[in-house]
Every structure is written in structure tokens, then in C-alpha cells.
Amino acid sequence: MEHPRSLYLDLLEKVVTNLIYEDPPVPNQWLHEREFKATNRENGKDWPSMAHTMVGLKRIRNIRALLEQVIADGVPGDFIETGVWRGGVCIMARGVFEAYGIRDRTVWVADSFEGIPDTGADGHPMDQALGLHHCNDVLGIPVEVVQANFARYGLLDDQVRFLPGWFSDTLPHAPISQLAVLRLDGDLYESTRDALVNLYAKVSPGGYVVIDDYVIPACRKAVQEFRAAQGVTEPLQVIDEYSVYWRRAA
């Protein structure tokens, strides 16, 4: 019989993505579906109306696998996601720590909790062209709602810490000493760069960096520029058609 830990985490994957009740998506200018489709939800190709994450089952399973790997390998550090929406990925991370009885790692939840910033005339041109801030009625989730979502799973405790505000303001001063997994989901060039510049040095050797939005040209450009400037040569591993990760060498 499968271990209860695996059964719990298997179920948690399905609940945060709502493959249980199959809620319909919210149509938008990039994704037009109005009906639930399992393949879209598995691949993170819809904006769920009720699920606690939009990253899809493959990317949720990736986070679980990376966290289980750093636990098995004894890689020190916390978990952070920069750009959390309804909090589902961070809930999954906290659930992994709970399932393994881990009490000395923190889940950092970093978001504006207002949606995507309007970069305006001073922002990067690629961010201006993307125009995601026009969808903040869907993308802007208040911190109180995210906290309530954690509480629904019984996972809101002192191992979860919130960093509300724009990344350029919060990440330079975040009281984080080490990270085992750094997950970026800020979509924009500036948001991606802010996270890498301020947090990459805190990723432990053997830790992981996950880029949710690598398919977006602005995000991809920020990642490529940072890796080139820092001499990062670790190969990118593909999660799905949207996302990649790499493991930091010594």
C-alpha cells in the first residue's frame, strides 16, 4: 500500500489545482477557453475560477519533486515563490514540509497582493507591451484571501511568512538567509530581474531555481541576461512548454 505521506501529497496536488471539482476557467485575451479541460489544467493553460493555483499539475509536481530532492539531499534553506496569486504553490510547499515533519524551513510568500504593476512609460518596453496589469481584477488577490486559503488546509502557521509589496521594495530587505528552492512567477522583465538579483545568491549549492514564465519573452530575456552576467552555466531543464528550472552547482 502507498505510504500515507504520498497519498496526502498526491491529494494535495489535485486539490490546489482543483482537478477534484473541475472548476471552469476565466477566459482572457491569451487563453480563451470557457469550459474545464483536464489537459489544460494539467499543463497550466487556463486561469481557474476557483482553484488556488493556475500553474497546472505538471508544475505543481515539479515543486513537490524538487522539495523532496533537497530534503533527501540535505540541501539547507527555505522555499520562496515570487508571485503567488491565490497561494496554491506555496500551500503545496508547506504541505511537503508538513508531510515530512520538517519544522526548520520557512515558506516565503512574496507578492504585491495587488496584481501586476503598471510599468508605465518608465518600465521595460517588453513589460509595457505585455499589458498584464489590465487583468488585475483576476490577478490581484489580497493577502487576507491568500492567508485564508492556507488556513483552509490547516497550513497557516509560523512556518509561513508573507512579504507584501512590490519586489523592488521587499526583496532587497527580506530576512532570508538561505534558500533551497527559489520559484519565480512574476511574469515581467523587471519582476524577474528583481527576484534574481536579490535572491539568487541565497540559493544553496544543490538548490533549485524555477522560472514559471520562461515562455514570456520579457521574462526569458531577464533570465538569459542574468545567467550570462553571473556566469551561470547549469543547463535549463524543461518542466512543460511554459517553464524551466536549473540546479545550482557548488
Number of strands: 7
CATH superfamily: Vaccinia Virus protein VP39
Distance between the termini: 38 Å
The helix/strand class is: alpha/beta
Which CATH architecture?
3-Layer(aba) Sandwich
- Helix share, percent: 25-40%
Low-confidence runs: none
**CATH level 1 name:** Alpha Beta
Specify the overall morphology.
globular
| Beta-strand residue fraction | 5-15%
Q: How many domain units?
A: 1
Let me know the largest β-sheet. 7 strands, mixed
Mean pLDDT score:
94
- SSE ordering: HHHEHEHHHEHEHEHEE
Q: Report the C-alpha radius of gyration, rounded.
A: 17 Å
> Could you name the CATH topology?
Rossmann fold
Number of helices: 10
Q: Strand arrangement, largest sheet? A: 3-2-1-4-5-7-6
InterPro entries: SAM-dependent_MTases_sf, TylF_MeTrfase
Organism: Micromonospora carbonacea
Pfam family, one: TylF
Keywords: Antibiotic biosynthesis, Magnesium, Metal-binding, Methyltransferase, S-adenosyl-L-methionine, Transferase
Sum up the structure in keywords.
seven-stranded mixed sheet, Class I SAM-dependent methyltransferase, antibiotic biosynthesis, metal ion binding, metal-binding, Rossmann fold, transferase, 7 strands, 250 residues, alpha/beta
